[in-house]
Design a protein that fits this description.
By secondary structure, the chain is mainly α. It has one domain (about 15-65). It has helices at about 5-10, 15-20, 20-30, 35-55, 60-65. Helix 3 runs antiparallel to helix 4 (about 35-55).
């Protein structure tokens, strides 16, 4: 990750330290999923994290609308 970007955009890096590995782990959970409920939960976890990442820039109108 580029910490210069975080400083320029005034992001808190602690949010991204948690929010980047969670979708990655949910993608890894989809690999051994043998039933649809496990696949559904992995996709939902992934999409929830992506919604939070999309809405993380609080002062941007586009980011707020995306969230």
């Amino acid at each position: 990750m580029c910490f210069d970007f975080f400083e320029k955009e005034r992001f808190d890096a602690s949010e991204f330290i948690v929010l980047i590995p969670l979708p990655t782990r949910s993608m890894l959970l989809m690999i051994p999923a043998h039933d649809l409920i496990a696949m559904y939960l992995a996709i939902e976890l992934q999409s929830l994290c992506f919604y939070v990442i999309a809405a993380s820039k609080r002062k941007s109108k586009f980011s707020t609308e995306a969230g």
